Amino acid sequence: MEDALARRLLAMMERVEPWLPPASVEIDWQHDIAALWQRHALGGQLMPVPPRDALGLDDLLGIERQKRALVDNTRAFLRGYPANHALLWGARGSGKSSLVRALLNGLAPEGLRLVQVDRHDLAGLPSLVAQLRNEPHRFVVYCDDLSFEGHDDAYKALKSVLDGAITGPPDNVLLYATSNRRHLLPESMSDNQETRVVNDELHHGDAVEERISLSDRFGLWLAFHPFSQDAYLETCQHWVAHLDAADGWSPEARAEALRFATLRGGRSGRIAWQFACQWVGNRRLQAET
Predict the structure, then answer these.
(1) Which residue of 169, 188, 220, 281 lies most exposed, with the fewest beta carbons within 10 A?
(2) Pairing of strands 220-224, 86-90
(3) What is the pLDDT of residue 97?
């Protein structure tokens, strides 16, 4: 009888175990500067992660205005001054996510801590913010490549935390997001058909107002655009020197960088990095042979 009961309990535990959250890991914010928020059926937990790389703010070229604005906003926040939630939007590969990573590397010694939240885990955002509220450190909660589909209600949790709840976000938490869309939600022609003019004033329809109301909750908008040819070549030169200072920049490298951008159909910081990897890698292989 007891053996049969033990076997049944063991079988039940084997079925239930995959649904249980992983064992929690203690975070020491004195040493851990970044963490991932993992939501599960029983709530959520923070998992400390090391910085992805040593990318510095000086490594990011062609986005000086955006870089200065985000650094100033973050430094004001770290010193307890008023600061805004930030939305970094625009062309793909133009440095939005890289700027956030470089910001963490540069300002972690000043007290910055970063928590990244996946878009699919935004429903647990209120729980995360409540957990950070009583921490002595200052946190940027970061969501990369943020966008929503028309049937996706996860954005409502984001709206509530940003500016909708009675309590609002705590003083030690800011939200930063990157997106290719300025208004985060999809836009269609039918939405604009509800727009009307009343007494010479333009009034958007409810669908458009819903889209604008989400991005309006970010007080700092930073737009990122495709690189000019000069900015692209300057970035290529920087990364080639970073990967192999001995190889240097040459007319041959410049011509190949332009050809690489043409084949990729655009110019951006990401494409400049990819070119530098290919150029330096191929040169080293040729040197071996």
Answers:
(1) 188
(2) parallel
(3) 93
Mean per-residue pLDDT, 160-164 = 65
Digit-coded pLDDT (tens) for 98-109: 999 999 999 999
Q: What does the pLDDT look like over 191-204, one tens digit per residue?
A: 555 555 655 565 45
pLDDT score at 184: 60
The pLDDT, as a whole number, for residue 81 is 95
DSSP output for the chain: -HHHHHHHHHHHHHHHGGGSPPPP----TTT--EEEEEEETTEEEEEE---S----GGG--S-HHHHHHHHHHHHHHHTT-----EEEEESTTSSHHHHHHHHHHHHGGGTEEEEEE-GGGGGGHHHHHHHHTT-SSEEEEEESS----TT--HHHHHHIIIIISSS-S-TTEEEEEEESSSSSS---HHHHTT-EEETTEEE--HHHHHHHHHHTT-SEEEEE-PPPHHHHHHHHHHHHHHH-TTT---HHHHHHHHHHHHHHTS--HHHHHHHHHHHHHHHHHHHH-
The reported pTM is: 0.80
